[in-house]
Design goal:
Length: about 300
């Protein structure tokens, strides 16, 4: 069993780095870290050095990162995955530096989503210098696509400390790795990709203020404002450049005790996606791009 201690980052490829960076700062509100690497914008939302890296190149999500406790846990995870038949690649020094982690491994989930497990993700104590006052408090969760969400949960639950919090029929599986209702979600989608990246905000007022701000700035609102009955979070999904969906939300449920039993919601039942009964639609997914095929290595026992 691999214990994920937190989500770490999203890396996304962008054909127009300047435009994507402008949106991430001026519209989403993230802090742009001092540039240390040509072609990469590191964006900060909380005490992580960054949680979003925009990488100049083919458009599409490159990887989703998760933390493990330390280097020993990473080595154990590498062994576990190789024994389970996954092709795993250990990042080199420069790649780890770009991610601001001590070390990491990369592999693909059974549906083609590139995942990275990292140790020693860099923490920064200086308060975040947000580019606009969106009220962001932290990188909240990420959502991946898979053709079968029950199969996807089998993958997450059999290899990781991942527990389903709620099901939305066969459309979505909301997964926790700590008390937060979900730090990971899997949505039904034919091709691998990142459905959205979520940022928590401090108050419901932040969600509503951003709704007006985004509308005034001509940003496409994909869904919301509304309230998810599963997590109780007030949500707002909006579309960034190159098909990247961002979400702000406030008020996510915490599950502090193990007596919680996952519930199943019918996605076609009114109120199952938005308990305020607003218009709902499937937000768009940024497809996965593979730029460095995972090479098979022999297991060293
Ligand atoms: Fe979400």
């Amino acid at each position: 069993m691999i214990e994920l201690t937190d989500i770490a980052y999203v890396r996304s490829g962008v054909a127009d780095l300047a435009a994507a960076t402008r949106f991430a700062t001026g519209i989403v509100g993230l802090e742009l870290a001092a540039q240390t690497e040509p072609g990469v914008s590191h964006l900060r939302a909380d005490d992580r050095h960054h949680c979003l890296a925009l990488v100049e190149g083919p458009s599409g999500v490159l990887a989703s990162g998760f933390r493990v406790a330390d280097d020993d846990a990473l080595a154990a995870a590498e062994k576990h995955l190789e024994r389970a038949g996954f092709r795993v690649r250990r990042g080199d020094k420069a790649e780890a530096r770009s991610r601001r982690v001590g070390a990491y491994i990369a592999f693909d989930d059974p549906f083609g989503n590139r995942l990275e497990l990292v140790s020693q993700q860099e923490t920064i104590t200086r308060p975040v210098a947000f580019s606009r006052p969106a009220g962001i408090t932290e990188f909240g969760h990420l959502c991946l696509d898979a053709p079968d969400v029950h199969e996807a949960y089998r993958f997450w639950n059999s290899h990781f400390n991942a527990k389903v919090s709620d099901w939305i029929g066969d459309k979505a599986c909301l997964i926790r790795i700590d008390p937060v209702h979900h730090k990971l979600a899997v949505f039904k989608g034919e091709r691998p990709g990142l459905c959205h990246m979520n940022f928590q905000v401090a108050t419901i007022d932040d969600v509503m203020r951003s709704w007006h701000f985004l509308t005034e700035h001509g940003v496409e609102i994909e869904q919301g404002p509304g309230r998810h009955p599963q997590s109780t979070a007030v949500f707002l999904y909006f579309l960034g450049p190159e098909g990247f969906t961002y979400e702000y939300s406030w008020g996510v449920r915490r599950i502090e005790d193990d007596s919680w039993r996952p519930r199943t919601f019918d996605p076609d039942e009114p109120g199952s996606i938005d308990m305020w009964l607003g218009p709902t639609r499937r937000v768009s997914t940024q497809p996965q791009v593979l730029t460095d095929p995972i090479e098979h290595r022999e297991v060293a026992n």
